[in-house]
Amino acid sequence: MIVAGLDVAFSNDFMALVIIEQGGDDKIRLRSLDTWRKMDWHLWKESMKEKQSKFNIDEIYVDHTNNQSVVMELQELGMKVQGVSFSNSSKNDMIRNATKLMVIGELIMPEITRIHSKKQQKLASELLLQLQEQEIKHDSVHPKLMHPKGRHDDLLWALCLALYGIKINNQGISVISSIEYSDYEEPKEDIVRNILNRLQGSGITITDAKIYFPNKNRVDLL
Questions:
Q1: Where would I find the Terminase large subunit gp17-like C-terminal domain in this sequence (predicted)?
Q2: pTM for the full model?
């Protein structure tokens, strides 16, 4: 699965795009990084079309907190795009998600010296620096993520948006099945067999099950 995160820029900020891929081993790797600053809007859209064609992006997640037109314009180009609104809470969640994925080894950051493109080397180095620079400020009721004055965090949030896309596409499905048995007092094995037969071939993986027994204050976990 190939997903992109797009951090939208205003005034003198950079617009940043991070493309990632989750492979068959479930590991997430960077495919491409890009930034634009004060670029002609039509040229930027052509650049996005080239990225879409080259990497065959499944979906792009865009920061539309203050501007929803970018989402609509990319959709008009035939791209699958989803807008995401930033808040202090969602930003904290995204940073925690990115940190967790790196710590457990699911997000594999590239070795800079092994990147062939000088441009990609520079952008990857900048992304790693932005990850390290984030600080939590507690000078208000709600803690805020901040970056040093004069620096940028565009690549960081583009990465977080892409990882958010991977996360929501990997969410599992909860299935509740109600089965009545009258021939057995505690038919745990029968219940499990019945559920498995019903879901066979559906592609759903059962990770746990709870069995509630009527008129009994107990729950059996399987």
A1: 5-163
A2: 0.70
Q: Tens digit of pLDDT for each residue in 133-156?
A: 766 665 555 555 565 576 678 899
Residues 188, 160 share a domain = no
Q: Is 14 helix (H, G, I), strand (E, B) or coil?
A: coil
Whole-angstrom distance, CA of residue 57 vs CA of residue 22: 12
Same domain, 113 and 203: no
Place of tokens 């998600």: 97
The reply to whether 48 and 14 lie within a common domain is yes
What is the distance between the alpha carbons of residues 121 and 124, in angstroms, rounded to a whole number? 5
CATH number, domain with residue 54: 3.30.420.240
Can you list the alpha helix ranges (DSSP code H) found in the chain? 41-55, 69-76, 88-103, 118-133, 154-169, 188-199
The model's pLDDT over 39-55, given as tens digits with 9 standing for 90+, comes to 788 898 999 999 999 99
